[in-house]
UniProtKB/TrEMBL annotation:
Protein name: Mycothione reductase
Organism whose genome encodes this protein: Amycolatopsis saalfeldensis
Family: Belongs to the class-I pyridine nucleotide-disulfide oxidoreductase family.
Methyltransferase listed as a keyword: no
Note describing how the cofactor binds: Binds 1 FAD per subunit.
Keywords: Disulfide bond, FAD, Flavoprotein, NAD, NADP, Nucleotide-binding, Oxidoreductase, Redox-active center
Residue ranges of every copy of the FAD/NAD(P)-binding domain listed in the record: 4-322
Length: 464
């Protein structure tokens, strides 16, 4: 039974822990799937590469407002797909090769199998190629095993067949019609991608709005704009999935009674669940929340001394920048057990790369109300800044929440062009405690650039 100083389970953000600082440690890394994890292979990176192509494909649909008439002639899906994975797959393969065979990693054993705890700090690894299982023990473990898509309990779904974000990007050809179950991040991003490529999209949401966890005004605006581009069915329960002569059908129950949506394929985008169950973390004494996320303290350590966890396995944020931050914290804490640092989860931002883009950090207005926090709000439309005139934008806005007395920003929510970049100075201000007045007037804002949206929103805040 090989014994290690450190075993890491999962090669998403877990893979970035090992470096030259660990040269004297006997280490192992265990990966059951593709090296590099979700973000690289089936998450952030390929989706954003598809979204970029989708953004390009939609320009003819709005170019005439600038006096330029364009036409979308064709979308060459196999080429788009192969360009994207032709870049990503070699990176994943190169990462595996580096860990397995490079001189830098002579202290690292790579196990390409599935790990499952069988006792305190004892991990059994099973291999799909029929090799006998191996049992590893270690002084320290890092659990970075991520999550997987949740499949809702819809009668007939298994027999009918469905895609998830793990498979839909590798389709042989574009479907004519797609129905997406779910109204969150993945639904919003893929609805944009497929609608832009000319696919008839239907989104089925069980609540009354898309992107429901965004600020209420952002969610309402996004829902309205999405419904102009594709078929949005809200407040719907999916009662059955079935095959039809031409494809698939979902039977729905909604405010107007029973209805059916037909499509060529189903994409399930109803959230993700942590892999703590399949890793059987309980067998090593590690505890989980009701959501299945592993419980960690501020240092990212689980309840078991020497067992750390990070990323989607333990973080309800389920975002790559959070997983990366936590892996840096874990790396430091492994190397400096007497000077451990805490992870910083104060102002975790996110962006939804759909159309229009959505980005957010801090409290939404509904959360501020629910928490009884005292706040003031300001809103600035893209239509009110010079760059917004250039873009002829009529629907985007930034919304800020601030403490009326101190001017400290409490939340920022943007829907509109480049929201994911425009929000960054607000994340910086919140992280470093810069108040709204100082931020607005303590620096130049390039004229007439998009961040004037933020300058104006800051100046509009009705502070005491
Ligand atoms: C479609 C999609 C788009 C996304 N887009 C974004 C985005 O734009 N921005 C953003 O911030 N986040 C995005 N995310 C979320 C982001 O991908 C995750 O937050 C991030 O990848 C989590 O990293 P991780 O290291 O915790 O887990 P993962 O990257 O999931 O790595 C876990 C690894 O562990 C392996 N593993 C699991 N169980 C075992 C086991 N028992 N034994 C051995 N190996 C195991 C898995 O095979 C996997 O390789 C997206 C996610 C999806 C699905
Ligand atoms: N841009 C990004 O950062 C990005 C992009 C994609 C995914 N992600 C990460 O991946 C996670 C998973 O994405 P997601 O979109 O699957 O989850 P999500 O939590 O964003 O959305 C899930 C949606 O499915 C709905 N839903 C749940 N069960 C349902 C059911 N039975 N029938 C109909 N609807 C149902 C929910 O109401 C919600 O609207 C996200 O939480 C996010 O952290 C991030």
């Amino acid at each position: 039974m090989p014994h290690y100083d450190l075993v890491i389970v999962g090669t998403g953000s877990g893979n970035s822990i090992l470096g030259p600082q660990f040269a004297d440690w006997k280490t192992a890394i265990v990966e059951k799937g593709t090296f590099g994890g979700t973000c690289l292979n089936v998450g952030c990176i390929p989706t954003k590469m598809f979204v970029y192509a989708a953004d390009v494909a939609t320009t003819p649909s709005h170019s005439s407002r600038y006096g330029v008439d364009e036409e979308l002639k064709a979308v060459r899906w196999p080429e788009i797909r192969d360009r994207i994975f032709g870049r990503i797959d070699p990176i994943a393969a190169g990462g595996a090769e580096y860990r397995k065979h490079h001189e830098d990693n002579k202290n690292v054993d790579v196990y390409t199998g599935e790990g499952r705890f069988t006792g305190m700090k004892e991990l059994r690894v099973s291999f799909s190629d029929g090799r006998p299982d191996e049992v590893l023990t270690a002084d320290r473990f890092v659990l970075a095993a991520g999550g997987r898509p949740v499949i809702p309990d819809v009668p007939g779904l298994e027999e009918t067949g469905y895609h998830t974000s793990d498979t839909v990007m590798r389709l042989d050809e574009l479907p004519r019609r797609i129905v997406i179950i779910g109204g969150g991040y993945i639904a919003a991003e893929f609805a944009h991608v497929f609608a832009s490529f000319g696919v008839e999209v239907t989104v089925v949401g069980r609540s009354g709005a898309l992107l429901r966890s965004e600020d209420e005004e952002v969610s309402a605006r996004f829902t309205e704009l999405a419904a102009e581009r594709y078929d949005v069915r809200l407040d719907r329960k999916t009662t059955r999935a079935r095959k039809t002569a031409s494809g698939v059908a979902l039977d729905l129950e909604g405010p107007q009674g029973a209805e059916t949506v037909e499509a060529d394929l189903i994409l399930v985008a109803t959230g993700r669940t942590p892999n703590s169950d399949r890793l059987d973390v309980a067998a090593t004494g590690v505890t989980t929340m009701d959501s299945g996320h592993v419980v960690v303290d501020g240092y990212q350590q689980t309840v078991v001394d020497g067992i750390y966890a990070l990323g989607d396995l333990s973080s309800p944020h389920e975002l790559k920048h959070v997983a990366n931050h936590e892996s840096r914290v874990v790396q430091h804490n492994l190397l400096h057990p007497d000077e451990r640092i805490e992870a910083d989860h104060r102002f975790v931002p996110h962006a939804v790369f759909t159309a229009p883009q959505v980005a957010s950090v801090g409290l939404t207005e509904q959360k501020a109300r629910a928490k009884g926090v005292s706040y003031v709000v300001s809103k600035q439309d893209y239509a009110g800044i010079a760059y917004g005139w250039a873009m002829e934008d009529t629907t985007g806005f930034a919304k800020l929440l601030a403490d009326p007395a101190t001017g400290q920003l409490l939340g920022a929510h943007i829907i509109g062009p480049q929201a994911s970049s425009v929000i960054q100075p607000l994340i910086q201000a919140m992280s470093f405690g810069l108040d709204a007045r100082s931020m607005a007037r303590g620096q130049y804002w390039i004229h007439p650039a998009m961040p004037e949206l933020i300058e104006n929103a800051l100046l509009n805040l009705p502070l005491d």
